[in-house]
Amino acid sequence: MSMLALQGVGRDFGGLPAVDSLNMSAERGRITGLIGPNGAGKTTVVNMIAGLLKLSRGQVLLDGEDVSTREAQELSRMGIARTFQNIRLVRDASVRDNVLAGFHLHEKTSTLANLLGLPSAFRERRALLARTDELLDRFGMTAMADWPAGSLSYGHQRRIEMMRALATEPRLLLLDEPVAGMNDAEAYKLAAIFREVADDGVAILLIEHNMRFVRRLCDHVCVLASGRLIAEGDAESVINDPRVIESYLGS
Question: Is Nucleotide-binding found in the keyword set (predicted)?
Answer without folding.
Answer: yes
